[in-house]
Design brief:
The chain is mainly α. The chain is rod-shaped, with a radius of gyration of 68 Å. The termini are far apart.
Length: about 170
């Protein structure tokens, strides 16, 4: 159900003088066009603020990316330094291993030399043992000679004592 245009025009003519009074009663003192303009201005300001906020966020993101890149570079540098230090430590361990190998070789040489010296000492002891055996044999032969001498001396002394006693008995 639509109204004819003449009725609409009549309503508009009747309402126009009373519309401003009615709007002021309702707190709508400004006409609708003013509200629309204000709302558009506010929308424009909000959009500008949003644009500004977006720019700030993008700057923050770029700064964060730069910081992450810097920290990545720092971590790479630190990792490289740590790798170099580990390589140095590995080289030192290799040097220590070489020194231990040299020391092992020296100990083996010393052990072999000591073994040879002990063998020489053993040979000398064997020679000394042979000399002692020879000396023992000499002492045994000397003891036998001394025993024979003692027996002969004792026998000669007894014989001489017997002869002296016999000669004294004869003279007496």
């Amino acid at each position: 159900m639509s109204l004819p245009q003449s009725d609409i025009d009549l309503i508009i003519q009747q309402l126009k003088p009373h519309l401003s009074i009615w709007m002021s009663d309702r707190g709508l003192e400004k006409p609708m066009m003013m509200y629309e303009i204000e709302i558009r201005e506010r929308i424009v300001r909000v959009e500008e603020e949003l644009k500004h906020q977006r720019e700030l966020m993008q700057q923050g993101f770029t700064m964060m990316n730069q910081r992450f890149e810097q920290s990545d570079r720092r971590f790479e540098i630190m990792r490289d330094e740590m790798n170099k230090r580990f390589e140095q430590v590995d080289k030192r361990f290799e040097q220590v291993d070489k020194r231990f190998e040299q020391m092992d070789k020296q100990f083996e040489l010393i052990r072999e030399e000591m073994k040879e010296r002990f063998e020489q000492v053993d040979k000398r002891f064997e020679q000394v043992d042979k000399r002692f055996e020879q000396a023992d044999k000499r002492f045994e032969s000397l003891l036998q000679r001394i025993d024979r001498f003692a027996i002969w001396s004792f026998g000669a002394t007894l014989t001489l004592a017997g002869l002296v006693l016999g000669a004294i008995r004869l003279w007496l």
